[in-house]
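User: Show me a protein chain along with its predicted structure.
Assistant: Here is one chain, sequence first, then structure tokens.
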Amino acid sequence: MYLLLSEERLGLEGASRTAVLFAVSVALAVLSKVLVEDPVRFRARWARGRTGALALVAALAALAALWAAAPQPRTGEGSVDVTRLGAGGG
């Protein structure tokens, strides 16, 4: 969420951005519990057979879309050169 809801994308900074990030994170956690964890734990009827396979495919498609929507990391001034983080790299 921190990458997807950047200051530039939201137009917010400071406490207001933190509040939005917190609210979105909690909402996604609740959805995850209700739609993923509880059906597995309680063996929901819809999670079996064709419907369960369709739900799995839909979840994988949503994850692929999220991966595609994630912004590329910025390089240049202000970024960290990870090749120099090793032992003796400076």
